[in-house]
Design goal:
By secondary structure, the protein is mainly alpha-helical. The protein has 19 helices and no strands.
Length: 506
Amino acid sequence: MHDGTSSAREAASGDDPDGLWTAGRRALTIGLILNVTIVASEALAGGTILPVVAGDLGGIDLYGWVFSGFFLGTLLGIVVAGMLIDQGHLSRPFLMGIGLFSLGLLIGGLAPSMEVLVVGRVIQGLGAGAIPAVAYVSIARAMPERLRPRMFATLSSAWILPGVLGPNVAVAVTGLTNWRIVFLGLLPFIIVAAWLTLPAIRAVGASHPREAGTDPGDSEAASAAKVAADRRRLPLALVLVLGAGLIVSGLSNVSPAPLVLILVGLAIGVPAFARLTPPGTLRAAPGLPTAILLRGFLTFAFFCADAYVPLALQTVRQQSSFLGGLAYTSATLTWAAASWFQAQRVQRLGPGRFLAAGFAVLFVGVAAFLLVLVPEVPAEASVVIWGVAGIGMGLAYSTPSLVVLREASVEEQGAATAGLQLSDVLGASLGTGVGGALIAFGVRAGSPPGGPLAVTFGISAGVAVIGLLLTRRLGRAATASGRPPIPLATVPTGGGPDRGHHGGVG
């Protein structure tokens, strides 16, 4: 009997010579594209109109928590989804991800206060962490190796249309109706996308077919070991999320003892991070550990500033949401273009050069944005300037993944890639949290928003410089490789905040 599962297994084994749009794969291809498009649309639209939301709900001192809460939820969602994926079919983690993402949107759209909005964003982040994990595994299981780069490139391209239209449509909807429609209006599309995708997800096999000659006992033992490892990771991930949350809370001064919160957060979060990443990551040991650490520095530097670009334009320069949307669109398009440029040349020039160039260009973009805060500089320059920051991310973001695949042994690749996505999401969470803490401090002190925002962009630029200096510690991994090129579209990047793959800002 030839059912959907067997078709998926034939595709995974490479027996089916057809492409992405044949009858056996069309449903999965369309479903994944729809889900990525919806997540991308929400990510770019929500960040654009957030200053309007904060002005309506009050509580701008929680502005940063809208982002940090999302990223912390994403971190947990990645770990939980990984455990569910290893236990069986993909439908359970897919439904969990879609359900939590939708629930978070519903809570956000109906939120009576910023506190409730933050809760909704945490729940939404849990779902956002599961969705890309399911997408990557479904592609790995249901498609032969020769089709995977094409599929990942297709999913990357699914960000272009939301990048062009999403922010501007959100601004138009907010102006004509209410910002809540931007959140709630996506729910019907999510339901339709889930309904179209679920049958294809169910048809994907529960695991890779065993290779010829593989001992079933060895396979079962490896599976049991993987489940046990995931169970150890979940408590550590919970501790890390708690520690990061305490640090951000302390920085935001939301309690009478902020220093105590920061110290406790560091005391429990740093050891958890050390255990969840390869040895030497915290001290930037040469090679793979430094590559993993640099991903966190990169996302910290970018999202510490990116989250507050619309706020700076609207509160300091008194511009409309439209200009902030154009800045986001510019960065999205330049990120994608620079990523393709990097993918064509990284094997010849080496990932170290692209990482260094990316950090340098990101520094230029962030530092130049400080000029936008000056009244004499045309506010429209922000569109070009933030596009420069997007170029820096496009040059640098995927290269740590390539180093991980090159430097890690087969036995280490799982732990190394998990550490990479952990560093990715944690960097974004702490970056947005630090920026939000500075803004909250400024609000409580009664200072104009320009000062805290300038400090935020200054910290972002400083972290980019530190990252640039750390690229020297890549060592051998920084040189060009004589190995055959690895298409960067196939590099697993988990659920982190890559605009070109799965987004993070929302």
